Amino acid sequence: MAKHILSVLTENKAGVLSRISGLFSRRGFNIDSLAVGTTQDESISRMTIVVNGDDYIVEQVCKQLNKLIDVIKIKRLDDNDTVSRELSLIKVAANNKTRSDIIQIVDIFRAKIIDVSHETLTIEMTGTEEKHQALIDLLTPYEIKEMVKTGTVSIERGTNIISK
Amino acid sequence: MSGAKALIKTLENEGTEVIFGYPGAANAPIYDELSKSKIRHILPRGEQAAAHAASSYAIMSGKTGVCMATSGPGATNLITGIANAYMDSVPLIAITGQVATSMIGRDAFQEVDITGATAPFCKHNYLIKDANDIAQTLKDAFYIASTGRPGPVVIDIPIDVSTSVIDYKPPHKTDIRGYKPNVKGHPLQIRKICSAIAQSKRPLIIAGGGVGASGAEQLLAEFSQKYQIPVVTTLMGINHSSRCGELLIGMIGTHGVLEANTAVRKSDCIIVLGARLGDRAYTIVHSENSDAVIAHIDIDPAEIGKNVGTHIPIVGDISVVLQQIMKQKIDCNVSENARWANSLIELKKKKKVFKDNKQTANPKSAIRLLSELTGGSAVITTEVGQNQIWTANNYSLSGGGAFITSGGLGTMGFGLPAAIGAKVAAPDKTVVAVEGDGSFQMSLSELATIKQWNIPIKIMLFNNSQLGMVRELQRMKYSSNYFAVGLDGSPDFVKLAGAYGIEASRVSSNDELPDAISKMLRGDIPYLLEIPVDKDESTL
Ligand SMILES: Cc1ncc(C[n+]2csc(CCOP(=O)(O)OP(=O)(O)O)c2C)c(N)n1
Whose CA is nearest to atom 5 of ligand 1? Predict the structure, then answer.
C-alpha cells in the first residue's frame, strides 16, 4: 500500500479537526500523519494528511472529505512534484563523553541544538521522513529521552498553488 | 429582539408551516416565542417520533421538515430519527436546546454534546454561540439540508443564546465556499452513456430515492417510455417510479422480486439513477452481472464507485442529467428494447396465488386488496420487518400515491409517526400505516398524538405475535432456534385503540378482508384494523 499526500483547505472553525478525524476512524481509513495550521488567509486552515491505502481508499477519502461542508478544497499531491518537510524536537541524553559526538552528528544533518543541560541536548531537525529516520537511528545508541514530531507538511514545487 | 424570536422569524421566512417538537427547560424560550407564531406545533409523545414525523412530512410535502427537542435526553431521543433521515437523504432541520454557553463542558444538568454525537450521521451541524448568528446559520442550514443530496442538519442552541437580545439583521443569500453541489452532468459522460444505451440490447434502469429528491419522477417515466427501457427500483425508489406504468418491473435485492433480480442479471447496460446500491440491493448487481456496462448518475460523487464498479460515472442532478441525455440523439433499437421489456413484463404477470388459512389472513393478499381498493393512490407508510416487504412487493402505487418507508436504517417504530407526518403534509390523502405488532409497540404512544391533533390516519396492523422477520431469520439460519422473538403479553389492540377513542376492528380470515379494509378506508377518521397473520408466513 502506497502513501498519499492530501492537502486539505478547511474553514478555520471550531470542530473541523474532529469532523475530519472522526470521518477517518468511522470509515476505517488510516491516517499516517496529519498536520494543521492556518494559512495566509486567517479564515482558512490547511491540513496535510498522509494516508496509507490503495487508489480506491484514497479516492473514497477525498470524496468523503469533500462532503464535509467545512472542507473547501482537497488536492492529492504528486510525490514527485511536491516538497515535504517534517519538524521534530529530540531530547537525547548527553554527558561530557558523548556531547561532542552528538553535536557532530547534528552538524552532519544540518540540524540544530536548541537547548542544553548537564544531562541532555535538545535537537531541532527539519527534513523528510527518511532524513528523520536516519538521524533517529544514529541518536538511538545515546538514548533518546523524548521526541515530538509535527507530521509532514507539503507544498507543490514551482508556481502551482491550490486555488480555493 | 431575542435570539429565540430571531429563530422563529427565520423559520417563518423559510416557509416552515409546522414543527414537530417536544419542550423542556433548555428550549423553553423558543417555545415561548413559538406560541406567538403562526407556525403550527405538533406534540408527539416522544422526540424520536417528532423526527420521524418531520421526515415523513418532508418526503410528502417536498419541503424541509423541522423537529425540535430540549437538551440532553430530548436531543438524544432525536438521534434515531436524525440517523434515519441521513440514511434516506431526507431534508430535515433538527433544533435542540442546549445548556448555557458558560456551562458547556461541565456536565451540567441535561447536557450532552449533541453536535459531537450526531456528526457521523448528519449532513452538517452547528452549535450557535452568538444570537447574532442565528438567522444566517438557520438560512444556511435550510440550504444545506434541501440542496445537493438532501439530509438532516442539526442546530444546537444554548439557552442564553435564545434569551440574549440582539439587533436582528436579515440573513443574506447563502454562500458557502465548501459547499457547491454540481448539478450538470459532464458532456463527455453524457455522450458515453448515450452510446452505451445505443449499443445495449437489454438496457435497464435502477431507480433509487434520488429520483424523488431531484423531482425527476416524470422525466424517468418519459425516458424509460421513449426508449422502452424497463425500470426496477430499490426500496427507496418505489416511491418515485409509479409513473413508469408497465415498464416498472419491481424491487431488486435480497427482498426484491424474482423478475426484477432477473432483469438485473440479464441486463447488459445498467443505468443507476440516484441509488446507493447498498449491500441489500447490490450483492445481486455486482456479483452476478460483472459484464454489464454500469452507468451511475448521482448528485453525490461519493456514492459513485463506492459499492459498485462504475464504467460511466455521471455526477449531477438526475432531472438535469436526464434532460441532457434526452436532448441527444440516441440511435437505439427501440423495438428490440421493447421485446426485452416484454419478456420481463410476462415474467411479472405470472399469477401468484397465496394460501388461505382459516385462523389467519394472508398479509400479501391483504396488501393487494388495499392496493385495489385505494387504486394505488393512498399514501402508505410501513414499519420494518415482514410487513415492510409484503407492502413493498404487493402494493402497486399509482400516480398520487406514495410509499414512505425506512430504507437505509431499517428503523422499527418509523411507520406510525411517518403516517402522522404524511397526513399533516397531505390532509386530503388517505394515509395508511402498515404495521407489524412489534414495530407498532415501539411507537404506539403516538395514538394519542393522532387523537389530540385529529390526524385521521388508517392503521393496518399485521399481528403475528412475533418479531416476524427475525423469527424467519432464526428459522433459516439458526435451525429454528426461536429465541426472544415472541410477543406474548401484547395488549388487545382493538381495545387499546378504543381506549384512545379510535375506532377499530379485527378480521379472522381472508374472506372478511374486502369488507374490513373498505370499512377501514371509509371516512376521514382514524381507524385501526388488526389482521392476524400466521407466524410462519414467509416474507417473499
Ligand atoms: C429499532 C429496531 N430494532 C430492531 C430491529 C431488528 N428487526 C428487524 S425486523 C424485526 C422484527 C419486526 O417485527 P414486527 O414489527 O412485528 O414486524 P414483522 O416482521 O412481524 O412483520 C426486528 C426486531 C430493527 N430493524 N429496528
Answer: B412
Ligand 1 atom showing the smallest separation from residue B469 Cα = 19
Q: What are phi and psi of A156, to 5 degrees?
A: -75, 150
> Mutate which of B121, B179, B308, B310 to test chain A, going by most A C-beta atoms within 10 A?
B179
- Among left, alpha and beta (phi > 0; psi -120 to 50; other), residue B127 is beta
B3-163 CATH fold: Rossmann fold (3.40.50)
Contact B146, B181 (CB under 8 A): no
Q: How far is B244 from chain A (nearest CA, A)?
A: 32
Strands (E), B72-169: 92-98, 124-127, 152-158
State the complex-level ipTM.
Answer: 0.90
Cβ pairs A/B, distance under 8 A:
37
Domains along chain A with CATH numbers? 2-77 (3.30.70.260), 83-153 (3.30.70.1150)
List of residues 6+ apart from B107 with CB closer than 8 A: none
Q: Is B462 helix (H, G, I), strand (E, B) or coil?
A: strand
Class of domain B187-349: alpha beta
Specify the domain boundaries for CATH 3.40.50.1220 within chain B: 187-349
CB atoms B301 and A71 under 8 Å: no
Which residue is closest in CA terms to ligand 1's atom 16?
B438
pLDDT, tens digit, 9 for 90 and up, residues B341-362? 999 999 998 867 676 666 788 9
pTM of the shown model: 0.95
User: What's the one-letter identity of residue B409?
Assistant: L
Give B424's contacts (C-beta < 8 A, 6+ positions apart).
B18, B42, B53, B57, B455
Other Cβ atoms within 10 Å of B234 Cβ, number: 30
Task: Please give the residue that has the higher pLDDT: either B128 or A30.
Answer: B128
Q: How is the beta sheet containing B203-207 ordered, strand by strand?
A: B248-251, B231-233, B203-207, B269-273, B293-298, B312-315
- State in words which class domain B363-532 has: alpha beta
User: How many other C-beta atoms can be found within 10 angstroms of the C-beta atom of residue B387?
Assistant: 30
Q: Nearest-CA residue of chain A relative to B128? A: A14
How many other β-carbons are positioned within 10 Å of the β-carbon of residue A86? Answer: 21
**Ligand 1 atom closest to B468 (CA):** 20
- H/E run at residue A122: strand A120-127
Cβ–Cβ < 8 Å for B435, B496: no
Helix (H) or strand (E) holding B228: none
pLDDT in tens, B222-280: 999 999 999 999 999 999 999 999 999 999 999 999 999 999 999 999 999 999 988 88
Provide the grid cell at B532. 392476524
The DSSP element (H or E) to which B267 belongs, if any, is: none
Q: Considering chain B, tell me which residue range(s) the CATH 3.40.50.970 domain(s) occupy.
A: 3-163, 363-532
Protein residue with its CA nearest to atom 3 in ligand 1: B412
User: Using an 8 Å Cβ cutoff, are B65 and B126 in contact?
Assistant: no
Write out pLDDT tens, residues B156-179: 999 999 999 999 999 999 999 999
Within 6 A (CB) of ligand 1 lie B 383-387, 410-412, 436-439, 462, 464, 466-470
Q: How far apart are CA A63 and CA A44, in angstroms?
A: 20
